[in-house]
Design brief:
This protein is α/β, with parallel strands linked by helices and 413 residues long. It has 20 helices and 13 strands. Strands 2-1-3-12-6 form a five-stranded mixed β-sheet, covered by helices on one side. A four-stranded mixed β-sheet has the order 8-9-7-10. α2 links the parallel β1 and β2. The longest helix is centred in the N-terminal third of the chain and has 19 residues. The protein is globular, with a radius of gyration of 25 Å. The protein starts with 5 loop residues before the first helix and ends with a helix. The relative contact order is 0.17.
């Protein structure tokens, strides 16, 4: 018969209490993000749902402002990594991947069928054949057009670049700007460049260009500007675009003074506020230039990653799998007013949301992130200044490309 002394019994009892307390203590997931108020509320609801499904996990969310986060992430990934961190796809995540600061989560993609359900964004999440995070939202770019202006000149909705340019001649003859934009803030012009680049040379080429691997003086770059010149030199773009904000150009489309606008889906609210209805506002994919190049699209993509120094990797992967599901992405994006990436998600009953979901879910050629996300900040600024100058003074092309090439050699070294 085994006898237990009172002291041993007390020690055993204390150990059992401690073990029980340890089991009751929830595991912690530290999550760093940079949400605006509406996305923050949507994510807090999603986190509450995750915690309800996983009562042994406590997600602690620390939210930063956007600008502060850009600096903070470079510090905390090195000094005190959380278990989850928000960022962006494509070349924006590449420096952290190359520095060994994001964890390879290919096993999450493999185990949960994400190569299929998140196929449209797979290329922008893949480096060296591995996946480095999970995307949860994006929004489409493309061409928004004034249906009344099209009817006025008898133009059909184009699918090819040749058809688009033929329409431009009709619009110019009628005193209507074929393409409007406002480049005072520079970035709207980058949307035009990106699509011409993607349609002329393709997604892989475009990613190499923005990664600094292709000289700006290369003939392949000149080919992009040659297509752009077909809009610029005949005067098909709003003449005073450099003095306009993007909302000013939106007003020209609303008023029927312009026929087409290369812009992101966030502009739809501005068009509608100006009085356009679904009967007068249309959306079309940027036309095909080279039919041998798979169609790629512009869709800035928000993502969540596991830092390489995360302390709770197992539960972080569980959260990524949760975030990738069709149901969660449906609810999140309904609140965000954007598009879920999971192809089995449902989207809002809005013609432009539905058009964007169809466009991006069937994209065979890849998803670009926008020039100022895909290129380093300094290169993006110099590049966009060059784009604006080209649209005003196309005769300066050689000087512009030489300046961009000098910047490439300095910035990417």
């Amino acid at each position: 018969m085994i006898q237990i002394t009172r002291r041993a019994a007390l020690a055993l009892s204390a150990a059992l209490v401690a073990a029980t307390a340890a089991q009751a203590q929830p595991r912690t997931l530290r999550y760093y993000a940079d949400f605006d108020p509406a996305p923050l509320a949507a994510f807090e609801a999603a986190i509450a749902e995750f915690e309800a499904q996983n009562p042994d996990i406590d997600v602690i969310l620390q939210n930063f402002d956007h600008e502060g986060y850009k600096t903070a992430i470079r510090n905390f990934l090195t000094a005190d990594p959380p278990d989850l961190a928000n960022w962006y796809a494509g070349n924006r995540m590449a420096p952290f991947v190359n520095a060994g600061q994001f964890l390879d989560v290919s096993d999450v993609w493999d185990a949960h069928g994400l190569h299929d359900s998140l196929a449209s964004a797979a290329a922008s999440m893949t480096i060296d054949g591995k996946q480095w995070g999970v995307p949860y939202t994006y929004y489409q770019w493309g061409i928004y057009y004034n249906r009344t202006a099209y009817e006025q000149v008898g133009a059909e909705v184009p699918s090819t670049w040749e058809e688009f340019l033929a329409n431009c001649a009709r619009f110019k003859a009628a005193g209507i700007d074929c393409v409007t934009t406002g480049t005072r803030a520079l970035w709207p012009g980058a949307g035009i460049f990106d699509y011409l680049s993607l349609r002329t040379n393709g997604y892989d080429w475009h990613m190499k260009l923005t990664a600094g691997e292709i000289p700006w003086t290369d003939d392949s770059v000149r080919a992009v500007f040659a297509e752009w010149a077909k809009l610029v030199e005949p005067g098909y773009i709003t003449a005073n675009h450099a003095a306009l904000d993007w909302q000013d150009a939106a007003a020209l489309l609303v008023q029927g003074k312009a026929a087409n606008y290369v812009m992101g889906n966030f502009a739809v609210a501005v068009f509608r506020d100006g009085g356009m209805t679904d009967e007068t506002l249309g959306f079309l994919p940027f036309p095909t230039i080279n039919p041998d190049i798979p169609r790629a699209e512009e869709a800035p993509t928000d993502t969540v990653h596991i830092p390489a120094g995360a302390k709770n990797v197992e539960d972080a992967k569980r959260f990524l799998a949760f975030l990738a599901t069709a149901e969660v992405q449906t609810r999140l994006n309904a609140a965000l007013g954007q598009l879920p990436i999971n192809k089995d998600s449902e989207v809002a009953d809005d013609p432009f949301i539905r058009a964007g979901f169809e466009l991006l879910s069937t994209t065979p050629g890849g998803i670009a992130q926008f020039f100022d996300r895909d290129a380093p900040a300094e290169m993006a600024k110099i590049g966009m200044e060059g784009f604006q100058e080209f649209m005003v003074m196309p005769q300066n092309l050689d000087a512009i490309l030489n300046r961009l090439e000098a910047a490439r050699q300095r910035i990417y070294q």
